Amino acid sequence: MLCNGIVYIFAIVGFNFYKKQIMPIHNEVELRDGYLIIESIGSQNTAVKIDEYGELIRQEGNKHNQKRILLDQRRMDGEGDFHDAYEACESAIIAKLILTGFRLACVSKPDNLKENQAWELLLNNRSLNFKVFLDFDEAVDWLTMP
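Structure (tokenized):
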């Protein structure tokens, strides 16, 4: 019976792994006058990758002494899990971003807009200054306003 349980669990985990087809994330960082751009390419549909992304934002912001970050996610693939997003918003990494005064603008592709708006709601409820846009220039305007 235990053997059957192990096989069953493996089958579920294996199915979910192949179903999601998790792609690696590639991030490019560019310092602009008054803000930092982090362009992300790939997929981050696990809680671990979300935590790593939050830590990348914090580290790059601190490295460049910049608290205003534009997250260019127009080349990201979605299918994130709301439960993973909720758990990530409760993490120590998000708390560090809040306590150190980060301001984040996210430029989303239309296919991921609803998912990113859910992130906006969760993060704003935790007092992180985070806003989602479809237009790059609007995001820059909001991010750089005093």
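Confidence is low (pLDDT under 50) at residues 1-21. The chain has one domain: 23-144.
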